[in-house]
Amino acid sequence: MADRSAPSCHLRLEWVYGYRGHQCRNNLYYTAAKEIVYFVAGVGVVYSPREHRQKFYLGHQDDIISLALHPERVLVATGQVGKEPYICVWDSYTVQTVSVLKDVHTHGIACLAFDLDGQRLVSVGLDSKNTVCVWDWRKGKLLSMAPGHTDRIFDISWDLYQPNKIVSCGVKHIKFWSLCGNSLTPKRGVFGKTGDLQTILCLACARDEVTYSGALNGDIYVWKGINLVRTIQGAHAAGIFSMNACEEGFATGGRDGCVRLWDLNFKPITVIDLRETDQGYKGLSVRSVCWRGDHILVGTQDSEIFEIVVHERNKPFLIMQGHCEGELWALAVHPTKPLAMTGSDDRSVRIWSLIDHALIARCNMDEPIRCAAVSIDGIHLALGMKDGSFTVLRVRDMTEVVHIKDRKEAIHELKYSPDGNFLAVGSNDSSVDIYGVVQRYKKIGECIGSLSFITHMDWSSDSKYLQTNDGNGKRLFYRMPSGKEVTNKEELKGIQWATWTCVSGLEVNGIWPKYSDISDINSVDANFIGQVMVTADDYGIVKLFRYPCLRKGAKFKKYLGHSAHVTNVRWSHDHQWVVSIGGADHSVFQWKFIPDRKLKDSLHIAPQESLVDSNSDESDSDQSDVPELDSEIEQETQITYRRQVYKEDLPQLKEQCKEKRKSAASKRRERAPGNSIRLHFVHGYRGYDCRSNLFYTQTGEIVYHVAAVGVVYNRQQNTQRFYLGHDDDILCLAIHPLKDYVATGQVGRDSSIHIWDTETIKPISVLKGYHQYGVCAVDFSADGKRLASVGIDDNHTIVLWDWKKGEKLSAVRGSKDKIFVVKINPYMPEKLITVGIKHMKFWRRAGGGLIGRKGCIGPLGRTDTMMCAVYGWTEEMAFSGTSTGDVCIWRDVFLIKAVKAHDGPVFSMHALEKGFVTGGKDGVVALWDDTFERCLKTYAIKRAALAPGSKGLLLEDNPSIRAISLGHGHILVGTKNGEILEVDKSGPITLLVQGHMEGEVWGLATHPHLPICATVSDDKTLRIWDLSPSHCMLAVRKLKKGGRCCCFSPDGKALAVGLNDGSFLIVNADTLEDLVSFQHRKDVISEIRFSPGAGKYLAVASCDNFVDIYNVMSSKRVGICKGASSYITHMDWDIRGKLLQVNTGAKEQLFFEAPRGKKQTIPSLEVEKIGWASWTSVLGSCCEGIWPIIGEVTDVTASCLTSDSKVLATGDDFGFVKLFRYPAKGKFGKFKRYVAHSTHVTNVRWMYDDSLLVTVGGADTSLMLWTYEMEGHRDSRQCDSEESDLDSEEDGGYDSDVTRENEINYTIKALSTNIRPMFGIKPHLQQKEPTLDERPPVSRALPQPEKLQTNNVGKKKRPIEDLILELVFGYRGRDCRNNVHYLNDGADVIYHTASIGILYNVATGSQSFYQEHNDDILCLTVNQHPKFTNVVATGQETQQICQLQLLLFMCGMQ
After folding, report:
1. Is the distance from CB of 306 to CB of 297 less than 8 angstroms?
2. DSSP code of 1185?
3. How many other C-beta atoms lie within 10 A of the C-beta of residue 705?
4. CA angle 834, 837, 839 (to 5 degrees)
5. Arithmetic mean of pLDDT, 1181-1186
6. In 84-130, which residue ranges form alpha helices assigned H by DSSP?
7. What is the sign of the dihedral through the CA atoms of 11, 16, 17 and 23?
8. Residue 1294: is its pLDDT beyond 60?
9. What span, in angstroms and rounded, lies between the C-alpha atoms of 244 and 961?
């Protein structure tokens, strides 16, 4: 049975034994419903003591280490560890996520606290700076962050009696924070002489600025403001780990095992010593206390939770226990009863009842326990120890039967034989010992075939054979009880195994991912009856596979909860439960096994939502049962949008070429040309890898995109307007519900989304900073306020924006595979769907995160690749189009049914008021009713249906449809071939726009005396375009191969085309029929040119470094030009037709005589004197200036000279079209630059009368027409050229003052420590100065070591208090401007100098000061708005120059 599909049964977490007491504190609370909330491993647990029931929160994917309870006691915040840890705020009733806070902390989240009204949450990270963050947690928005301390912070709390005040404490410090605006400012607590400086472990805030804190030595420190005012000594005998404030007072718990209750003034009420109670033991240590009314909850270091009723305080009730610290490896299940036995490095063996969910027996051993087994009759329990011994106990009363030590290394596995006669003991000494049970465990055999430690063993059903696995991954067989190895394959064939717990072997091949380390699956257990098996691995995942599982990379269902290694997993005796144990989290998880159900039952179990793909996820293997991807989709998924160099890199590249720039600046350079060009018309539409990117605007124009241009096309006038704000390929487009704004997303290193107005063509908002490499899908919400976008980074990140504010609301990793579409729910803007490769996900927003649920397919089918999606007529209905031609209908997250809609993929879908319209690869547009029951009408896109007004020709019937939109009584259709068609409801089709199909366009030629041009492309077509205002494609011809060049003959009657296989043809320019064809070369023909005049010769250049010259009349090759060392790139004839100029890929400029092809050497001065029939060359002294400063990185690919030889147009690899004066002598000429193409501009040509410039873009497949405008022709339109990227110092330099100021470097001072060594008393020592803020030392000198600071406190305090700033002489004018202002109607003057803002009263001559800055102030401005009188903003210089601390202060109100 080689079924690689996932099993249809599943597991549900039913109980977790344990509580995380080690390395955590304050993590145990009562909720409003009197339930108890805590965490263990990666699971948040809500336990109801009344019903003895647990609920689980499974939104984390690693260990939870911190927890805070909202003041209303329903919501819980938990923080986890990990490389990119996040905080989840969740509801303790429903255990669903409310908000996710992420992307700020690293390493982990050490502590959390809500403020008094529960609106804000403060968190502390585990990074080196122990960063403190304040969140508006509902929005998922970071309000403020600041470095917390150089050492660990243990506790943090909001002051519940003063707004915006926070207290944190930790290793040898306590800090009092105030939150002002978005800045958090700390003041260090002053220990003074009242108490020793020591580590503070916990704290609680009280009225009147009083703070109580628990110290490492067991004292309680009482603070008033930032000063220590008294200590309560000996409150506990050792460190106080937890402090909890409630209405009645305070509860503290410490390492001494005591819980103390205090009244509101911290007078002792009572003490409860847990070590002295019945359940107590020596070494009990309290990590968490919670006091509510007459109940107290206590969590201990050893994973117990006690509940104490105050009036019976010597009888604490033990409500939860688990293993203590140390790894947990041993697990066995009772053969006849619902019991599980576990043993751990904490040396205890425990027996758990799976029915009562309770610990029923516990026994402490002398050694750490590594494995366990129960005899078949259930009487004996064998335990393997870490020291190589094993012990057998009676299960009944846990008394010892025998203790045997035959080995030196740990016993990792032991098993009783099915007949109960033998015990096999496998050790890390690579051997298995066999003991006779009846002979009081006498050793009777030994298996020594392994070369590595023994990891797993199984007995055969007849007890005659044993199979083992070892650390090398070897599987060996032995005859029992002698221990002789069996190698004969025949003998092994018929063996039935009693159990299967081995990880290697044919039956379990499929559990191994394709590329995995042999040791990362720790345990397996097969359920023969249910034909499933469960595995435990190093990644904290429990997986369910079919059994047997023969082929590698089988599919599975996976369950998260354990944080790190899951060390062992077993089925209970009746296969009702699975028990799994975690190594480091030392918890025991009990999972309920839910066998295959009928679909209707399972529809009610909604999949557990999670942030990670957790519960019941399909595997990551390549799925053999998924049909081959459609060829078109496959092509599309392989397109890479990565660039070697992005336009964003230009400034840096130029920086690197600074030296070159300096030398160039000294030379006199040619001015930029006076004439300019303006984009006039673009042929092309991006359909081959985009979808749903074509819409009608409010006014009935059509908006779409191609290359880097957003196009608004007026079909009545056949004119276009352009949005040119992008600088690289646009990949997606969405229209606002009011049809007036459009959002477009582009390729880029930090790619941007532009929202622009289709009427004014002006940008309204630009969103950047969250998508790497590009944005492949965007969608507006129905109210138009939000925008969703998907990136093409490896995780296909999904971001939800408030686009008007430019604010990211939420983000999440979407999928490893490509996502094609994102759609926001029109009824609930908090919800969205994404579809893509084997992907259909339903998301809802939770704070700064999005929570996804996979579409639930049930037994109806498998996740197909989805190409498009829309929402239906209610908020839970959604429809998606698959790659196999079906439309899937979803309710909530469940697939209800699938309807066959097209042959081949459904690429586009559009929802109407009543019904839907779909388009597919089959070239059919279908109209449907609103339930997809009936197809009302279909339109096939065929040449025969083209209406006479079409602007071109349809290349083929039934082109693949990529975009559909409705409006104005028409259906607008975009095809993969780059055509835009308008389908009338009655049937006729009008072609509006078209361009080349996928593949690079290189060949371009303009007609010698008509307004037409020809292009040839890798898409294997040759096309003729009309350049007059009718702007259409006149003719097209399919070629056997793609082509890279073409050229009209001088009389315009013939057209030569060079193809990629080394052949070329000459065709009739009107009919495109063949006149003649040749093939002399194997490599691409790169350039082809008729000689001027009569066009007697044809020069054909190829990529194998030759130019062949043919006599056109006799159709013979008459000459070969040899001598080029690389492929030929450009070629020009002189006017006489006697000389050829050639450029090569090695940047050589060569000359050959025609027709023989003899190589000539011509000095550069002579070259300028020769009259050239055309100039398309990019080398030589005449065009030295066209090469940019960064010429090593990018190539100039094409150039073309106007017929009056004044202006040279060039195209380059960056997608720039530039105009230079000709001749462009001297390096780095000045130019005008235009962006519209995305990457490479492959060719540029002027029309015969220079009225238009025609350019083609390689991969962007577009043909652009630019009108040429003479100098002086400047109307009021905005100039779409970017004038040269030259630097201002070349244009005549600066005034000397400006130059000096420009060169001031503000960072140097901040980094050097010795400029002003006499800085005086450091800010953190200026304790009592009311006007100076408490800050850590500034960067001007190194902070003093810890010890000195403590001594200084006493000494230096007195003198500081007496210094008060009285007068400041000076004003900063040397490098600042606009920094003196009148205030209060001229009564006061405000200005700054050094780090002080000064308010000078004109009448009295007195000064008052703002002294919150800690470094030079560089700028100052006054708020002019009448509502904010006297509000001033000042900005300072600091080590991170970018992070200007803008401190608003009220003048005159110091």
Report:
1. yes
2. G
3. 26
4. 45
5. 82
6. none
7. positive
8. no
9. 65
Contacts of 872 (CB under 8 A, 6+ apart): 878, 879, 889, 911, 930
- Token code pair at residue 1178: 């990019």
Query: Which residues, 6 or more positions from 1451, have their beta carbon under 8 angstroms from its beta carbon?
Result: 1383, 1388, 1390, 1399, 1410, 1430, 1432
The span from the CA of 945 to the CA of 581, in Å, is 69
270 vs 284: CA distance, rounded Å: 19
Tell me the C-alpha to C-alpha distance, in Å, between residue 880 and each of 676, 852, 934: 48, 17, 17
Q: Cβ distance 1079 to 1065 under 8 Å?
A: no
pLDDT band for position 1304 (cuts 50, 70, 90) = low
Question: For position 896, what pLDDT does the model report?
Answer: 87
Q: What contacts 827, CB < 8 A, 6 or more positions away?
A: 782, 871, 874, 875
List the structure tokens of 995.
Answer: 């361009």
E strands present in 1281-1415: 1282-1283, 1381-1383, 1388-1393, 1396-1401, 1407-1410
pLDDT in tens, 461-474: 998 999 999 888 88
Contacts of 1362 (CB under 8 A, 6+ apart): none
Q: Among residues 24, 245, 43, which one has the least CA distance to residue 152?
A: 24
Q: Which one of 828-842, 1218-1232, 1348-1362 scores highest in mean pLDDT?
A: 828-842
Give the C-alpha separation, 1228 to 1286, whole Å: 9
Contacts of 663 (CB under 8 A, 6+ apart): none
Give yes or no for a cis peptide into 1155 (omega within 30° of 0): yes
Contact 762, 805 (CB under 8 A): no
Q: How far is CA 1352 from the centre of its chain?
A: 48
Closest of 856, 895, 850, 864 to residue 612, by C-alpha: 850
Instruction: State the pLDDT confidence band at 3, using cuts at 50, 70 and 90.
Output: low
Residues whose CB is less than 8 angstroms from the CB of residue 1417 and which lie 6 or more positions away in sequence, other chains included: 1372, 1392, 1393, 1394, 1395, 1396, 1397, 1434, 1435, 1436, 1437
What is the residue-wise DSSP string for 1193-1204? Answer: T--EEEEEE-TT
Say how far apart CA 1196 and CA 444 lie, in whole Å.
Answer: 85
More confident residue, 873 or 1221: 1221
**783 burial type by CB count under 10 A (0-12 exposed, 13-18 middle, 19+ buried):** exposed
Label residue 1194 by pLDDT band (50, 70, 90): low
pLDDT digits (tens, 9 = 90+) for 434-483: 999 888 889 998 888 888 888 999 999 998 999 999 888 888 999 888 88
- Are residues 366 and 378 in contact, defined by beta-carbon separation less than 8 angstroms? no
CA dihedral 652, 654, 658, 663 (to 10 degrees): 180
Are 973 and 919 in contact by the 8 Å Cβ rule? The answer is: yes
* pLDDT per position as a tens digit, 1154-1168: 888 888 888 878 888
Query: Which residue in this structure is represented by tokens 């001594």?
Result: 1351
What is the distance between the alpha carbons of residues 1297 and 379, in angstroms, rounded to a whole number?
A: 96
Both tokens of residue 1224? 């462009």
Structure confidence by residue, pLDDT tens digits, 728-759:
889 999 999 998 999 999 988 888 999 999 99
- Please tell me what DSSP assigns to residue 784: S
Helices vs. strands in the chain: H and E counts, helices first: 9, 110
> Is the CA virtual torsion 1417, 1422, 1428, 1430 positive or negative?
positive
Residue 353 — very low, low, confident or very high, per pLDDT cuts 50/70/90?
A: very high
The model's pLDDT over 217-250, given as tens digits with 9 standing for 90+, comes to 999 999 998 899 999 998 999 999 999 998 889 9
Higher pLDDT, 616 or 736: 736
Location of structure tokens 């029951």: 933
User: Which of helix, strand or coil describes residue 944?
Assistant: helix
